[in-house]
Write a structure and sequence with these properties.
There is one protein chain. The chain is α+β, with helices and mostly antiparallel strands. It has two domains: about 1-15 and about 75-144, no CATH class; about 20-75, no CATH class. Helices cover about 20% and strands about 20% of the residues. It is built from three helices and four strands, in the order H-E-H-E-H-E-E. The strands form two sheets. The chain has a two-stranded antiparallel ribbon. The chain is globular, with a radius of gyration of 18 Å. The chain starts with 10 loop residues before the first helix and ends in a 12-residue tail after the last strand. The model is unreliable at about 1-5 (pLDDT under 50).
Length: about 140
């Protein structure tokens, strides 16, 4: 059964909306373990620079069925109007739901910090770079 997308979200609900990606690998994968160590170091650096309690505390991943996983979560909207504002990507918000919330709310903003860019690694010889991922993007934001 296909439901009609819900086109109105209350500001209270909108403040809790977030996007999430989970990355995992076998617990025996030493490359992934090193990557997790690097992510923990980045988290420690951010924590030292940010106001108290503005970041969730670091929780070391525990293997589940032999797999280590880590979540990355970012809110769709921000309440900090001191950050550079951004336009909501219409390919990500085709029904204009997020843009409508931003347009009618006095304390919800879409900023550069809310934007998520999808990149893939490109390797040419010994040089690695990251380029926009165009083939495999997440599903558009819809509230069904």
């Amino acid at each position: 059964m296909q439901l009609t997308p819900f086109i109105y979200l209350s500001p209270r609900l909108a403040s809790r909306l977030s996007q999430r990606v989970e990355i995992g690998a076998p617990a025996t994968n030493s490359n992934f373990s090193r990557a997790l160590h690097g992510i923990k170091n980045i988290h420690s650096s951010f924590t030292a620079q940010c106001p108290p309690r503005s970041l969730d505390p670091w929780t070391s991943p525990v293997p589940q069925s032999g797999i280590l996983k880590i979540d990355f979560i970012t809110p769709y909207l921000s309440s900090d109007d001191n950050l550079p504002l951004a336009e909501v990507d219409t390919s990500h918000d085709p029904d204009g739901i997020l843009q409508a919330i931003v347009g009618r709310s006095e304390n919800k903003f879409y900023t550069e910090d809310n934007r998520v860019e999808y990149l893939r690694m490109k390797k040419e010889g010994n040089i690695h770079s990251y380029v926009p991922q165009t083939r495999s993007r997440p599903s558009p934001f819809r509230y069904n």
